[in-house]
Write a structure and sequence with these properties.
about 230 residues; alpha+beta; four-stranded antiparallel sheet; TerB-like; DjlA_N; TerB family tellurite resistance protein
Length: about 230
Amino acid sequence: MLPVRGRDGRATRAARILGTRTAWTPVGDGEFFCPGCGGDRNYQRLTGRRRLTLLGVPVLPRGTAGPVVECAACAHHFGPEVLDHPTTRRFSAMLRDAVHTVALAVLAAGGTGSRTALETAAAAVRAAGFADCTEDQLAALVEALAADTGRYFEQPCAAGLTIELHEALDPLAPHLAPAGRESLLLQAARIALADGPYTPAERDALATVGAALTICSDDVTRLLAAARTPS
């Protein structure tokens, strides 16, 4: 083989003589959703120190590196912001709790006198992951909320339920696609419509759900109208 000549050859020889090496130190671990693997994986959080190398031997410090998140499965490095994304298990739990809270809010706004509304709500909650949820359990929870807050069903969405809706939906909304956020609002609308047209209190509760899901008011109005149209 002929020797490498020219500028590229000189650069290659220089890289073999001088280089940079990073020594990584673990500073934490846990489980995260790995974008590279596309699933939940274990990770190590690493910080590093760079050193200039001469013929492969570290000789001079060159500052710090990281922190980075290293996947235990694929060994790829990611920025720390990757930990802001919930794991698949955590996301499923967040969605389950959100559906449950939304169902309670809509039932509380319309009352629990309609068996059809209770059945619709219980079916949605079971599908979200609470497999043992029953209509009677939801009715009892709504009655307990009413007793605890002294709230009448006909009144607008109470402050306590508004806070609970935001606590359940605010962390979830950034991780839902627009279609997913709309689907959750439509599901709430179907519960409200199960026993007839929207009441003012139900509209207020659904508007609160839409706001917590970062759906603009015009789109909330459009979706609530669409929910009334048989598919």
